Amino acid sequence: MKKYAESPTKDTNKKNNVTMASAFKTIIWPRRNLVFVGLLLIVIGRLAGFVLPLKSKELLDSIIPKQRPSRII
Question: 30-40: per-residue pLDDT in tens?
Answer without folding.
Answer: 999 999 999 99
